[in-house]
């Protein structure tokens, strides 16, 4: 299934992007494939990511893992701003 995730970032897009790319192997190992990511044109503190995942449970387990949660936090991810929308085609 595909999901669209949106989140505010507190340390700017470029910092978040560097951290996000550095963590690609961990996402891949968890069965999460990145389709695309970008920031809003008018707001460099709002990022959007489209991913392919086996299930929402897999994504939830990945994001709640303490090691991965730490990476998200260090990247500047504002956890309570996250919105994850499951998509169908």
Task: Describe it.
By secondary structure, this protein is an alpha+beta fold. The protein has a single domain, classed as Alpha-Beta Plaits. It has helices at residues 13-22, 24-29, 56-64, 66-74; strands at residues 2-8, 33-40, 43-52, 83-87. It has a 4-stranded antiparallel sheet. A hairpin with a 2-residue loop joins strand 2 (33-40) and strand 3. The chain starts with a strand and ends with a strand. The model has no long low-confidence stretch (mean pLDDT 95).
The 3D shape can be described as: globular
Note the total helix count. 4
Q: Domains counted in the coordinates: how many?
A: 1
Oligomerization category of the chains in this entry: single chain
Secondary structure: helix percent:
25-40%
Radius of gyration: 12 Å
Cα distance spanning the termini: 9 Å
Instruction: Please identify, by name, the CATH architecture.
Output: 2-Layer Sandwich
Q: Going across the biggest sheet, name each strand in turn.
A: 2-3-1-4
Beta-strand content: 25-35%
Question: What is the mean pLDDT?
Answer: 95
Given this structure, which CATH class is correct? Alpha Beta
